Structure formats: structure tokens, C-alpha cells
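R.M. (postdoc): so does anyone remember the format we settled on? I'll just put the C-alpha cells first.
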């Protein structure tokens, strides 16, 4: 069975301003998602599921989904702050979405096969889709508790326009032992990669330190764990308006409990995205170059 690609497209780009998901950055107005879908099709994914907000469904269907007709089956699910387990009610002051793992839960009724999950506004590169598709396609039938993630080299994920946040991975024998979210990762005066830890000490990261860019591979049993842990999360955090239920939170717990293992897939792909508005022109130039050198055809879905 071909794996499914699950695309997180429900968020607003607060630092960038506006809906990054609908921004045309390619030579013919292609969005970053268009390149992800193209690469996923080439790698062997068999279906795409998008999670979006209901209020921009019409724009999304007209500007995005219409391109993929005849190329790959597509489904859409919706994330809402009011979509909570029985016994919980969203506080009226809550505006912020509940986080990436809550968005993932929106796919539980339409995804019944191994699946990968990505952000809509990140460019992951062809090779990252190839290694994930191969991993998911080779899983034994009814596989459970054997997950994966694409581990990008942190040096291949930096922005020249400012600092970034990354999930810095700890590994052993090619498997994940933990993910620590690090904020304000940037270049120092020597162009070394650094961040400030919880003790306000500057720490250095080697170029090839693996980091998570939210490119995960799961089997459907992950939904049940997510539902269970979301209830626990809400019991502690429902009255905290900025609290979020993140994928690494669930993954870390499953790894620490030895309930599941997560294989770290290596890739030479270079991530890029529009973290800041100043990044935009650089991304436009990179896509133009990728078309010019033949990595992508003139028209992705012509």
C-alpha cells in the first residue's frame, strides 16, 4: 500500500504576515506546497490529506487543490479550537490553535495506512521524500510502534535573516532517544551555529547535528496514543491560552516509555522556507534556479 502525505496547512504565518501557504514563490506562481506535492508524487506517495482552517477553504480549493486533480487523490480535513474530546470545552479566550499534534488528530478518520506529516510552508527537498516513502512502503503489514523522522543537518536548515527554532535530536544507533526544542538558533560573528540554553549559556551546534523539521513518519496506531495524551494535556493546560500540544511532546513520551521506536532517516536535502519576510526573495531565487537546472520541469502539474 502506498503511504499518504499529511500536510499541516492550518496555521497563519505571524512573523511573515499573511497566509504563507498561498504565496506564489515559484516562476509560475507555485507555492511551497506545490513542490512538496510534486516531490511526494515522484517519490511514490499515493494520497495527500490537508488539514486547514474552515474559513479559507474556498480559497484553498480554488488556488491549491484544483492543481492536483488527475495527479493524486486529495482529501481535506479541518482544525478548530473547539474540536476537543468529550468532557472538555474550549475557553472563550482561546484563539491560538492547539498545536501540531492536535492538527494531526484531525486526520484519524481518513488515514488508515502509513503516513508522513509535513509543514505546508517548508521546502524539504526531493531526497527527503524519497527516503521517507521508501521507509513507509517497506513497513510490514499492520506495523505498529515503529515510526520514523527525517533528520536534517542543522546547517542545511538555517535562515540568513534571523534566528530559528529547531528540534535538536539525540540519537543512538540511528534511532531517536529524544528531541529538545531549541530557540534562537543562529550564526555568531564567526558564522558558527549557536543557541542559548536554559541556563543562558551559549552552546555550539555542529553543522551536521540532526534536527527535526516536523517531517515524521507514522502508522495509524499513533492516533490512539495522541488521543490519550491529548486528554492528559488538556487536564493540565486547558486554561493556558498559549499552550500547545506538539508532535515532539508525544514522540518523546513514547520513546522514553519504550512504547515506540523512531528511526532517524538521513538526508542531504537542504531545507528552506519563508520564516521572515526578508527570506522571500531568496526563496524565489532558489526555486528559479531549481527550474533552470532541470530539478523541476517548467510546469509542475501542466
Amino acid at each position: 500500500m502506498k503511504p499518504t502525505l499529511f500536510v499541516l496547512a492550518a496555521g497563519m504565518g505571524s512573523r511573515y504576515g499573511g497566509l504563507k501557504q498561498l504565496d506564489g514563490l515559484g516562476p509560475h506562481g507555485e507555492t511551497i506546497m506545490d513542490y512538496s506535492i510534486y516531490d511526494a508524487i515522484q517519490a511514490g506517495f499515493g494520497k495527500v490529506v490537508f488539514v486547514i482552517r474552515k474559513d479559507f477553504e474556498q480559497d484553498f480549493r480554488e488556488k491549491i487543490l484544483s492543481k492536483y486533480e488527475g495527479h493524486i487523490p486529495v482529501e481535506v480535513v479541518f482544525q478548530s479550537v473547539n474540536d476537543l474530546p468529550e468532557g472538555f470545552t474550549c475557553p472563550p479566550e482561546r484563539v491560538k490553535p492547539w498545536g501540531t499534534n492536535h492538527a494531526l488528530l484531525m486526520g484519524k478518520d481518513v488515514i488508515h495506512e502509513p503516513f508522513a506529516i509535513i509543514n505546508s510552508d517548508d521546502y524539504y527537498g526531493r531526497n527527503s521524500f524519497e527516503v521517507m516513502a521508501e521507509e513507509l512502503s517497506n513497513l510490514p503489514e499492520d506495523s505498529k510502534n515503529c515510526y520514523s523522522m527525517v533528520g536534517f543537518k542543522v546547517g542545511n536548515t538555517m535562515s540568513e535573516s534571523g534566528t530559528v527554532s529547531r528540534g535538536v535530536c539525540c540519537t543512538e544507533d540511528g534511532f531517536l532517544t529524544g528531541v529538545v526544542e531549541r530557540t534562537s538558533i543562529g550564526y555568531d560573528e564567526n558564522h558558527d551555529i549557536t543557541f542559548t540554553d536554559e541556563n543562558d549559556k551559549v552552546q555550539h551546534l555542529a553543522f551536521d547535528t540532526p534536527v527535526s523539521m516536523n517531517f515524521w513518519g507514522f502508522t495509524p496506531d499513533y492516533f490512539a496514543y495522541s488521543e490519550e495524551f491529548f486528554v492528559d494535556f488538556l487536564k493540565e493546560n486547558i486554561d493556558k491560552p498559549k499552550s500547545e500540544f506538539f508532535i515532539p511532546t508525544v514522540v518523546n513520551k513514547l520513546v522514553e516509555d519504550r512504547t515506540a521506536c523512531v528511526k532517524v532517516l538521513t538526508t542531504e536535502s537542504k531545507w528552506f522556507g519563508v520564516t521572515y519576510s526578508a527570506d522571500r526573495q531568496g526563496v524565489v531565487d532558489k526555486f528559479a534556479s531549481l527550474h533552470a537546472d532541470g530539478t523541476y520541469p517548467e510546469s509542475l502539474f501542466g
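R.M.: ...and that's the designed sequence above, right after the C-alpha cells. Also worth knowing: The radius of gyration is 19 Å. Residues 221-237 form the longest helix (17 residues).
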